[in-house]
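We were asked to recover a plausible sequence for a given structure. The inputs and outputs are reproduced exactly as logged, with field labels preserved.

PROBLEM: sequence recovery
POSITIONS: 324
GIVEN STRUCTURE:
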């Protein structure tokens, strides 16, 4: 019997789910304890941790209390917020791979359509009393080329939804191979080729040492003058200054940004270093592409299934390489 500890503040519905799912094991919740000594005791005794951001959730505790951890299962699909040296080398860390792909893909398509149809621009003109039907030209999506940088669960869902518009799909992943129906598959070595030929570019690749700053001035200038760039991955995949300057200097180019450079989840605040929201060719969202009704329970379910694989000595999904 393993001891499982949930370190984030789960609501009662989530707690009930975990209790029912792990009936054969001991499941505890860190926020059920008020005394520091009891929290320290339960941490020291725990084998498996389920967390959103263990770096923040456990920052007040001595890392010697973590020495018995064998698995940290994240609720988040990303892991760039972690400080790996807090946890023992023997401890596996697993991201919640693909848990939020469906709502994130829907959000991505919504951003593409909003920008292609210039909904924000024409909404604002109507708010000014301007009804310019024949001058309010939009872009046809059918037959366009969609480029996806990071063809994992999210990228595949985006491709599936966009196929309904009869688009061509170009995609990049780590292997350069896929069984999905695409018109081109490659690796990051083919990035320039994808950028040059795509009308819409979606970034859904994890943030790593290799992908930080992947899209900068040179890459942006390779793209079509009227391209649409969507980032639902992590802000630092794009160079902030370069994106701002490109948007400002290329009014026909547009971007939808869901993932920002400085966000509360990692840094405790939201901050931008350039006035993006003064630009008419940008739409932004507060990194909520994954936040849909009942998604937290769904995410908890996928995380719990991965923990179950670990408990059954099966191969677990989303194991993180400690490279950041």
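RECOVERED SEQUENCE:
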């Amino acid at each position: 019997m393993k001891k499982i500890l949930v370190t984030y503040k789960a609501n009662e519905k989530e707690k009930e789910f975990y209790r029912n799912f792990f009936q054969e094991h001991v499941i505890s919740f860190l926020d059920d304890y008020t005394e520091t000594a009891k929290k320290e005791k339960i941490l020291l005794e725990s084998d498996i941790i389920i967390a959103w951001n263990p770096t923040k959730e456990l920052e007040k505790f001595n890392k010697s209390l973590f020495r018995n951890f064998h698995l940290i299962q994240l609720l988040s699909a990303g892991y760039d917020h972690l400080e790996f040296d807090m946890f023992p080398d023997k401890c596996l860390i697993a991201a919640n791979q693909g848990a939020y792909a469906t709502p994130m893909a829907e959000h991505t398509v919504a951003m593409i359509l909003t920008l292609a149809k210039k909904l924000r621009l024409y909404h604002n003109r109507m708010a000014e009393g301007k009804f310019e039907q024949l001058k309010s030209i939009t872009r046809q999506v059918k037959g366009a080329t969609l480029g996806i940088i990071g063809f994992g669960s999210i990228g595949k869902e985006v491709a599936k939804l966009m196929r309904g518009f009869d688009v061509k799909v170009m995609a990049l992943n780590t292997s350069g191979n896929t069984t999905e129906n695409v018109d081109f598959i490659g690796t990051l070595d083919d990035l320039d080729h994808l950028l040059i030929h795509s009308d819409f570019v979606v970034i859904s690749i994890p943030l790593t040492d290799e992908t930080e700053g992947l899209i900068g001035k040179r890459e942006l200038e390779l793209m079509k003058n009227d391209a649409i760039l969507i980032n639902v991955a992590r802000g630092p995949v794009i160079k902030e200054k370069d994106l701002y300057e490109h948007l400002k200097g290329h009014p026909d180019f547009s971007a939808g940004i869901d993932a920002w450079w400085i966000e509360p989840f990692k840094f405790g605040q939201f901050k931008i270093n350039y006035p993006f929201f003064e630009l008419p060719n940008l739409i932004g969202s507060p990194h909520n592409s994954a936040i849909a009704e009942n998604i937290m329970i769904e995410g908890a379910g996928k995380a719990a299934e991965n923990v179950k694989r670990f408990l059954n000595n099966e191969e677990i999904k989303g194991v993180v390489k400690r490279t950041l």
